[in-house]
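Protein 1 of 2
SEQ + STRUCT:
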Amino acid sequence: MNRRDAIRNVAILMGTALSASTLAALEGCSSGPKNYTLQTPETRALLAEIAETIIPETSTPGAKAAKVEEFMLVMVGDCYDEKAQKVFTDGLDKINDESKKRFSKGFVDITPEQRTELLTAIDKERIEYNKRKDKKEGDPVHYFQYMKELTLLGYFTSEPGATKALRYIKVPGKYEGCVPYKKGDKAWA
């Protein structure tokens, strides 16, 4: 089984779906040179804050506790093709530039409320981009699509995400095909 199939299977098991473009960005293990330009403390801090804004700490651990930024760096650096890596890294620059334009500070230095406001606006931009009728096959994915999907995949496949955010039984008992559901119950890991 190759990496793309394994990730798709994990996403299906989690009850989520990765976009076809995200799966297309995943190359095999032997796709060529690795991208280590992302491995800077500044990039790690920026990714950690973006992920934490997407999945903040509440009564359950947030994305920072799950070290989602580490997962994102490995996925983008080792698994994405050069075109997808460029979209992703250019997107990090765009987020920082937009933060400086709106708030006169980089993304890492603004308040959590400002981060949420900024990422909400970028997500609306992503939705509009995906609705465009003039898009063609092979057009690049909106950079925030990669960031959201990698954050969700990294979080819900991490120990804190799978055991604290989802219902988890370390050693399950018998199979029960029909389990009562109450509104607000967590999904099963």
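Protein 2 of 2
SEQ + STRUCT:
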Amino acid sequence: MNTRGEGVIGEQLVCEYIKGRGMRVLERNFACHGGEADIIARDGAYIVFIEVKSRNSDEYGYGAESISRTKRRRLAYTARYYLHMHRLNHMDARFDVAVVTRGDVEYIKDAFDMNDV
């Protein structure tokens, strides 16, 4: 399977996972000139920006390890842009990571925050 196909399947699994935990998916694959977010969801008082990493194995490293400082910075920029664009600046943002390995979802809540970038 190609990487894009794995990514789409992984994102779908994560959407099902978070919906099962009471979160509501607002956007998928949101992009702006400074970055992109795989999934944007609402979890109570939070707008959650979720980075999804799909893997067939740990052979090339753990999925969450591949989220570089640059990627975190771009995701934070995207979050600011999204919140401003939708007039949600009053909402708290949270950054979660979902690692999908062979169909299993490991969900890391509060993986980083705006201060980490």
